[in-house]
Amino acid sequence: MNRFALLSLYRSLTRHKLYAALNIGGLAIGIAVFIVLGLYVRFETSFETWLPHHNEIYAIQSDWKDQSSPFAGRYVETMGGLLDELREDFPDLVGTRIMGGKHGGIVQRGNTAVTEDVAMVDPSFFEVFDLPMISGDKDGALAKPDAALISESAAKRYFGQSDPVGQTLRVSMWEPKNYRVAGVFKDLPDNSDFTISVLIPLPENMREINSNWHHWGNSSLQTYLRFRNPAAAARFDAAMPALIDRRGRAYLGDKPSDIFGLVLLPVTDMHLEPNGNAASSAKMTLVTLGLVGTFALLIALINYINLATARAGLRAREVAMRKVLGADRRAVMRQFLAEAMLMVALASLLGLILAELGLPLINAAGGLSLTIPYALVVPALVLLTLVAGFLAGIYPALVLSRYQPAAVLASSRSPGGGRAGTRVREALVVLQFGLAIAFLIGTGVLVAQTQHVRNADTGFQREGLMTVMSLRDSQVDPTQSRAFIQEVRALPNVRAAALANTVVGGSGTRNADNVPLPGVPGDGPLVIWEIVGPDFFEVYAPRLIAGRLFDGRTADDRANTAQGQPDNVLINRQAVGVLGFDSPDDAVGKTVGGDHLRTTIGVVDNLSFFGPRAPTDPTIYYYYADPLRTGNIVASIRFTGDPRAFHEQLEEIWQKIVPQVPFDAQTADEQLIQFYEDDERATRLFAIGAGFAVLIGMVGLWGLASFNTARRVKEIGIRKSLGASATDIVKLLVGQFMRPVLIANLIAWPLAYFAMRTWLAGFDDRIALSPLYFVGASLVAIAIAVLTVLGQSLRASRTAPAWALRHD
Amino acid sequence: MIKLENIERRYISDEVETTALVGVNLDVAEGEFLAIMGPSGCGKSTLLNTLGTIDRPTSGHYWFADTDLAAMAEKDLARFRAARLGFVFQSFNLIDELTIEENIALGLAYRKDVSGNKADRVAAAMDTVGIAHRARHFPHQLSGGQQQRAAIARAIVGDPKLILADEPTGNLDTANGEQVMDILSALNASGATIVMVTHSPSHADMAKRRIDMLDGRIVASAMRAI
Ligand SMILES: Nc1ncnc2c1ncn2[C@@H]1O[C@H](COP(=O)(O)OP(=O)(O)OP(=O)(O)O)[C@@H](O)[C@H]1O
Ligand SMILES: [Mg+2]
Predict the structure, then answer these.
(1) What PROSITE patterns would the database entry show (chain B) (predicted)?
(2) Does the model's pTM come out above 0.90?
(3) Which of B41, B39, B1, B49 is closest to B19 using CA atoms?
């Protein structure tokens, strides 16, 4: 590029400020959207890759194969003693257990107790998870039964500036015990699903503490293994069925491997792998967002190339003159390529700035803390500059450098690339608008579905409902629980309070039993069972479909009162068919179950405790006048007034009765948010990405329209001199874009249909894919296209024909 | 048929004011063939554009029959142009993306009241100027003379009352220029009123009347001795 070429680029940029702004700005936005969504995808796919030798680490999944069971699916959970049993068969196995984790235990300091992310692990923990250390010694540390390793931030929290190593920390998983801090490890990064701030050794005598430690099928903790290479892992996988059949027979029937499996899962796949029967939405969401980012960039590139080539046509005369003055074809091509790359480089720079500016907004919208890794992004942008610059420059370079100067100079007007060029541009507009319309449809459906599930009927009223989870802590004894619930019931703003082993959002464990049906051979269907105390159905108030609710005064309602007598139970609507009843009314009074008989006294509507994606499981409710006789009991409280004030009220009572355990209570909305937040975040990110994609499409169309209008000024003059009215001109100019936009629907509709059908399939409670979304999105797209083009067309239609005819 | 009264046209751009027409009065009778001459920049095109209603006078009246076109709404002017006028330009002004036939058909496209078959009329107009064999070509595939004849065909396809020609031979060689002039004369003979700007005295002599302009004024008017 010589000085004159640079000069002419500079002039053409400043003279055609608008084109330059559209060209560079549109591409910059596309690049920014791509960077931001790319960062998100990279973040989501990078989980656990920070671990040293992460490629060698695997989690063991328990695989429940019976598809009819509510527990069907694979879970990263195993029985406690699995690692010991595996080691008997594989003496060289490298592995560790992790028990606890997020909110796994309590740290006591003086009179206060704080919930902490405590995990109990094997001494071999660091052979698998080689956490980077800050101070102290990790080797062999966990072999001492009273050693603890804590994270950097936990060290700051508990010991401030002083050296934590050697100090004492009182930690409780089920009973308080003093530990000596042996070392401090670096805080685990954001892209990790492990939440651990305190590591303590698993006691040697777990078999005595937990009677289910070697109970095959039980799930108490997570087991991780490390293999030298994938082949070793595959060999291990292959050996599992035989091992299960040998060791699990006592617990899982004659051929345990038919119903139960142990499967390795690479630790890096854990984040996106659905747990159990949860829908595998994470991967799809990620792919979708990746596509949105890619398409936004693609649309921007299409625009850029479109505008650049269109505009290049206007410079045919310049090229012709250069050739007349002696430039050869190579020189002309070089000039165009260099120009294009310079422009894309500018756009990349601007895109990077936009991404940096937009990232805080995205982080806020997505609850993330992404930062731009320049070492990766800058080389990628350089590559993009070269590739996109080449693509944008090569077409005009080839076409323009080929023009015969004589023909160009003789022609009355600047070539726009001829009919072929127009076709190509039209096709690109079709593609661009097809994607934009698909995005609009997608946004509409996503937002509608998110809205729908947010307002969906869960079977109970979400407002004014508080759950107290800290009751299930093993340090809370039943007397304290009883005292607590009694004081709560006495509060004037409490309408009802109930103890049960279930709450909205789940209490941490779920139980299921096979219920043999009379006259049907086999074990019968697997049905969830829940223990509920007095007032449970007052708190949740599900619709009573048939029969009656539990009556605290009727002794018969109490479960297990007399051996051999059937328990009076309530079932939910989902259980009616599963238990072989024809209708809810049919169920009432009937008795099912083999040696444990249950008589249905009533049917209540489904209570949806686990969010919109999870189907409600068939459930049997048992009534215990005092549920505290069993374990894992939590409270649900129906109250009036401000939830925050109520929370404080409860905490005060709690502190008085159980000071040694931190108070943990959540509103129903807080409990449920875990089931919504991923989808809502995805919807927000999708809408933002799609919005920008549509915006870029608009910018492109606007640019193309203004280019076309500029090119057709003289034609407008001619048509006007022939009697065309302003309306005729507007119709002409707007009409030229209607065809590609209408054809774009043909791409958009099927694309959006299949994408949205797949996405909606992940929800148990979903909206219908109504044609309105499609027609609506197309109308919006058409309106956008018309509005984009209309302004210029109106202006063009008003130009004085005499002036237009003078135009060149 | 036409009466211009005290027409003035001023251009104001960047604080520079140019007066292209000053107090122009002109009568054009039905069936006339009028030639406008004068040095470059004296306002010939401006006058012709004013007659063609594609430029509005700053002040003055333009009576066509009994209507003042200077005060008419843009929409009605468009209809007027479509029905009554035919334009021929020095630089042909054919639309590149349309074939010759389509370009000519454009002369009927904006008329609501076309009688008879449009295709027939397009064919007839092409025959009149002898361009029928090039119907499916694009403008850039034609010689300048052929393009100008196509432009004339477009101007006459709607059977206009008034044909306005701005240097129709300006971009043509002598032979092609003669051919175009012959067509215009023939059209005039068959009843069309023609106003033509030209720099060629010999072409001006083919008109029935000639006016000379200087600095935006009509300075002389002369009838051709028959
Ligand atoms: N749009 C415009 N803005 C400013 N001045 C204009 C404009 N159009 C014409 N003029 C000026 O008006 C005057 C008359 O122009 P016009 O085109 O009518 O001249 P002309 O007689 O047709 O010349 P030529 O023989 O060169 O075609 C000129 O001085 C010209 O510069
Ligand atoms: Mg002129």
Answers:
(1) ABC_TRANSPORTER_1, ABC_TRANSPORTER_2
(2) no
(3) B41
